């Protein structure tokens, strides 16, 4: 995803350290903004995701791995859809139109439950 943002910086002529392109300077600023924002949306929950994966994986490694893969899958397709510039494409995988992002958050909830189970197990033992 970061590589795609780097390529978009070159394509839309947005130099570092500028985070967003200005509409007055660049006619493709909205497209760059969509790509940049898709990456930022995906990165917002990564610290929590990694912490939950490590702790939940200590007690439930297979469940955490499966739920973690689902979360990463939904983040990737959210980014790919957002990078098209059309907000409705954030919710599509190819031609299939459904709200898959909710499955990513449900996967994160499942990893939280694995982590809580690990914590309860530590307290009770």
Automatic annotation (TrEMBL):
Q: What is this protein called?
A: Microsomal glutathione S-transferase 3
Highest taxon, organism lineage: Eukaryota
Kindly state which keywords UniProt assigns to this record, in alphabetical order.
Answer: Membrane, Transmembrane, Transmembrane helix
Membrane protein topology class: Multi-pass membrane protein
Looking up SUPFAM superfamilies in the UniProt record yields: MAPEG domain-like (SSF161084)
Q: Which Gene Ontology cellular component annotation is one that this UniProt entry carries?
A: nuclear envelope
Q: Which organism is it from?
A: Quillaja saponaria (Soap bark tree)
State a single Gene Ontology molecular function.
glutathione peroxidase activity
**Transmembrane region(s):** 100-124
**Could you state one GO biological process linked to this protein?**
leukotriene metabolic process
Please classify the protein's predominant subcellular localization into one broad category: membrane
Location in the cell reads: Membrane
